[in-house]
Design goal:
single chain, 122 residues, mainly alpha, 2 helices, 93% helix, rod-shaped
């Protein structure tokens, strides 16, 4: 017959089935705790990834909006410069016409002046 002391020493013996079961149970608890911890870390990382994706999308939209504004601003600037160039070309053309007209009239008048000088000599 086995006494209570013998059963207790048998249960505490490292090779006993009860001792092995308790050890396995402790390992299972430890793995479960680690699993919970890793699950929480995974959820935290997933949340961070979602936040970063939203931030990236918002940044893309913001950058896209800024580029659209810059592009529109440059288009307006280009149109304004083109108008200014057309006006300046028209002014140059007008000045050229006046200059050409003055040159023609001054040539006529200078020919007339030379003719008068010649006539005055004789």
């Amino acid at each position: 017959t086995t006494t209570a002391v013998d059963l207790e020493s048998l249960a505490l013996s490292p090779s006993s089935p009860l001792s092995e079961a308790q050890s396995l149970l402790a390992q299972i608890r430890k793995v479960k705790d680690e699993s919970k911890h890793l699950g929480a870390l995974k959820e935290g990382l997933s949340s961070n990834v979602r936040q970063l994706q939203h931030a990236l999308e918002a940044r893309k939209e913001k950058d896209n909006g800024e580029w659209k504004q810059k592009l529109e601003s440059e288009r307006k600037r280009k149109k304004k410069l083109e108008r200014t160039i057309r006006k300046l070309r028209a002014e140059i053309e007008a000045v050229d016409q006046v200059s050409t007209a003055k040159n023609k009239s001054s040539k006529k008048s200078s020919v007339g002046v030379e003719q008068q000088k010649w006539n005055n000599r004789s």
